[in-house]
Amino acid sequence: MRGRHVISTPRLLFRSPTIIDVLAVLAVASDADAQRWLGWEPESVVPERQRERLLNGRARLRRPLLGWGPVRAPLCLVAIDPQNRAYAGMATIQEVTPDACEVGGSLSPDYRGLGLGAELFTAIYQLAHHHFGYAEVRAGTEPTNTACIRSLQSAGFVRVAGSDTHLLPVGRTVPAAWFSRTDPDTAICPAVRHR
Ligand SMILES: CC(C)(COP(=O)(O)OP(=O)(O)OC[C@H]1O[C@@H](n2cnc3c(N)ncnc32)[C@H](O)[C@@H]1OP(=O)(O)O)[C@@H](O)C(=O)NCCC(=O)NCCS
Questions:
Q1: How far is CA 191 from the centre of its chain?
Q2: Is there a domain that residue 157 lies in?
Q3: Domain containing residue 114: CATH number
């Protein structure tokens, strides 16, 4: 059902955010290190003094009764550390064509540098491919974002051709490298067939 997705990896649980999670989802990627790559509009970036409080909050593990999100916005997932219910990251899936989507994401500062990026991109690929039925899952990043590129490669993504540049939401144009994982053998969950 729309907005009630759940997928687990060895160390993380990904689920649709509820309205209670929304600010924490923004907080996980609002620090300068993440925004250097993500370049969100200023109104989406949580100020530092609120980030700590939000990231110290504890998320509920169970599947939400009602997901949050405007109908046509990219689908968003919150990553939770099931050991302590901390907000560990977020990921997005945006449809490009009926057969292809673009994915992205970020880990909370405390969860970077632990190899969890590969789990994030594996989870988001599996959901996009086996649940939403996208044959191709693409991701773009800056060629110098080594941690992101290595994480994508660990999750089975390979370098593909694409635009040399990318316009970030904040209006900054950055160099871009594109990665893709393709498998024609897709599956669509009956509950999302009419997404
Ligand atoms: C991108 C991101 C998801 C990567 O996840 P991560 O788990 O922190 O990645 P890691 O730091 O474990 O690095 C992954 C790999 O890259 C390597 N790596 C990281 N930085 C490196 C560097 N500067 N030079 C060489 N190798 C590097 C790591 O050693 C690791 O190697 P391994 O696969 O052999 O273990 C995470 O860092 C993040 O959320 N960053 C902020 C937001 C962001 O950049 N999002 C992506 C935007 S497109």
A1: 21
A2: yes
A3: 3.40.630.30
State the total domains in the chain: 1
Burial of 125 (0-12, 13-18, 19+ CB in 10 A): buried
Digit-coded pLDDT (tens) for 132-184: 999 999 999 999 999 999 999 999 999 999 999 999 999 999 999 999 999 88
Which residues does ligand 1 sit against, CB inside 6 Å? 29, 33-34, 37-38, 104, 106-107, 112-117, 120, 141, 145-148, 150-151, 154
Residue 164 maps to a domain: yes
Establish if 1 belongs to a structural domain.
no
Q: In which domain, by residue range, is 129 found?
A: 6-192
Residues 116/107, Cβ–Cβ less than 8 Å: yes
Per-residue pLDDT tens over the stretch 90-141: 999 999 999 999 999 999 999 999 999 999 999 999 999 998 999 999 999 9
Question: For the packed helices 146-154 and 116-130, what is the interaxial angle rounded to 10 degrees?
Answer: 50
Average pLDDT over the chain, rounded to an integer? 91
Q: Is residue 129 part of a domain?
A: yes
Give me ligand 1 centre to Cα 80, in Å.
18
